[in-house]
Amino acid sequence: MSRATAVAPANIAFVKYWGTRDRERVLPFNPSISMTLDRCVARCSVELEPGPGEDSVAWLAPDGRPASPPEGLVQGVRWHLDRLRAALGIEGRFAVETGNSFPTGAGLASSAAGFAALALAVATAAGRRPDAEELAALARAGGSGSAARSALGGYVEWPVDAEGAVRCLAPASHWDLRDVVVVVDESPKVIGSREGHRRAPSSPYFGRRLELVEGRLERVREALRERDFSTLAEAVEEDAVDLHLIAMSSRPPIFYWAPETLVVLEGTRTLRADGLDVCATIDAGPNVHLICTPEAEDEVVAAVEGLEGVLYVVRDRVGTGPLVEQQDLSRGDVE
Ligand code: PMV
Question: N or C, where is the chain less crowded by C-beta within 10 Å?
């Protein structure tokens, strides 16, 4: 029997992946850029047993205690394990224990962190040391494309060419940015991102988004290079609104925002007008990520905690990427 434990972070996209050009291989229509997070991580332990049999999946709550898994998790992990076995040529069954350091309903990219941690733990238990490119491919094989970006730390681009390999635009040490996640609704998504990606090209504005995204990517790359917050803020907010514009105009349409989402967006604009370095972005859900500088963070948190409809906030920052916490190989497994 071999064992491994891996930890992988969530990430928040500045320019988002929305629309899958190849669903089987989970490849996007447009490149995306994200910031890897630090505290919001998934920790996954796997044991690889020889011989046939069913994989077992256990879920741990943020305090480390066994809990009942979120809906669809066991099925998603088993599906991903089948793909990892095929990609890595592994025979045998897995016992998986996995969980997140953060609340699962918080609108954080829990699937990205979870799939990246599972991919790294499985590859490690099989005696492999995947580089970022291989880990990105193994992570997104679970069906969550954004998991590819969790293969690296700092600021990460997932291009559309090069078969989906990811690259680091700048390490975490380059720019200490914060992510204040403002939770306004914890209920599970009614329409998941997989379905959102499928519907995206049906929006009459999708082609225009693809045209505009190129310039936006360049502005974000430049803003990261120069640590230019106002250029970053403008591009990040444009792209977040764009994603939701596509979702709302897809056929059939998808509305992810709640009334409180708009309250937080308005509050963010007021804070920026008051001179704080803060901007907002929203994934496929109603919760808002406020990207800000360390100097602005406390004021941002105090202001949004006072807004009506805000349940709680999660504070995070740019992080250094996934890691293997433990590896215990049975003899003959090391390459
Ligand atoms: O990784 P997926 O397939 O769950 O898609 C995630 C898409 C967004 O989070 C909305 C945007 C992104 O680029 O992370």
Answer: C
Distance 179 CA to ligand 1 centre (A): 17
Torsion, Cα 220 171 268 315, to 10 degrees, reads: 160
Task: State the closest ligand 1 atom to the C-alpha of 112, by its place in the atom list counted from 1.
Answer: 1
Residue 172 has pLDDT above 60, yes or no: yes
Within 6 A (CB) of ligand 1 lie 13, 16-17, 32, 109, 111-112, 144-146, 193, 283-284
**pLDDT confidence of residue 1:** 85
CA distance 45 to 169: 30
Query: With 70 as the cut, is the pLDDT of residue 319 above it?
Result: yes
Pocket residue to mutate for ligand 1, from 18, 150, 189, 246, most atoms within 8 A of Cβ: 18
Q: Convert the pLDDT of each residue in 89-101 to its tens digit.
A: 999 999 999 999 9
